[in-house]
Design brief:
- The chain has 223 residues and is α/β, with parallel strands linked by helices.
- The chain is built from 7 helices and 6 strands; from the N terminus they run E-H-E-E-H-E-H-E-H-H-E-H-H.
- Helix 2 runs antiparallel to helix 7.
- The protein is globular, with a radius of gyration of 17 Å.
- It starts with a strand and ends with a helix.
């Protein structure tokens, strides 16, 4: 069975761990009440989901600006190691609500760590879907903000929405995790087919890893 490697990115508190628990239908990651105490280390799990093998790489607050870069380098290295030889999908998590500077910095840092090409392998996934207007779709929501709409277009208009708190159980229709996650995996298949089944450029990952290790050596050597 082939493996689909998914790197999940987003600021702390957006619901990365809760989403994993929703997708795998069990508590695979701890969920914290405080937005300041979520995942601080890169973690991964590999499990079967609907007949496919999914390797889920849950990033730490790689995308939280309050963390020092030197603190994050070991976690960036681990993330790259976990998704080796390369991720098929970057899943960018954003909350339904205002597209603030913090959310924009998540995308900027993704490009910084992995290059702009990563967006060719990216899907936007919004959490807190219950905050959508009664008649709104996530596509309509995203189109109302110029910066967000540009990001959506750059990601090939690939977007979905979940609500880990309210859309579970036997709920059906557009506003249900069951429907949205089914559509998400269809989008993943379509994107992978469009990319010729390729994963994200392994050469760039190796270069990034080498650069981080060299910089880390210089830092510890006192250069």
């Amino acid at each position: 069975m082939s493996e689909t490697r998914i790197v999940v990115v987003g600021k702390t508190g957006v619901g990365k761990s809760s989403l994993a628990n929703t997708i795998f239908e069990e508590n695979v990651f701890d969920v914290f009440a405080s937005a300041n105490s979520g995942t601080t280390r890169c973690e991964s799990i590999t499990k079967e989901v609907n007949g496919r093998l999914v390797k889920w790489i849950d990033t730490p607050g790689l995308f939280d600006t309050e963390r020092k870069e030197d603190e994050m380098k070991p976690e960036i290295v681990k993330c790259i190691e976990e998704c080796y030889p390369g991720p098929h999908v970057f899943l960018i998590l954003l909350p339904v609500g205002r597209f603030t500077q913090q959310e924009q910095e998540v995308v900027q840092q993704l490009s910084q760590y992995f290059s702009d090409q990563a967006l060719d392998f990216a899907i936007l996934l919004f959490t807190h879907g219950d905050d959508l207007g009664d008649e709104s779709t996530i596509e309509e929501f995203a189109s109302q903000n110029e910066s967000l709409n540009k990001l959506l277009q750059r990601c090939g208009n690939r977007v979905h929405v979940v609500d880990n708190k309210y859309w579970g159980g036997d709920r059906d229709g557009y506003r249900s995790n069951r429907y949205q996650l089914s559509q998400l995996f269809k989008t993943i298949d379509q994107m992978m087919n469009a990319n010729g089944g390729r994963y994200y450029n392994n050469d760039f990952l190796r270069q990034t890893l080498q650069k981080i290790l060299v910089e880390a050596y210089r830092f510890t050597a006192g250069d």
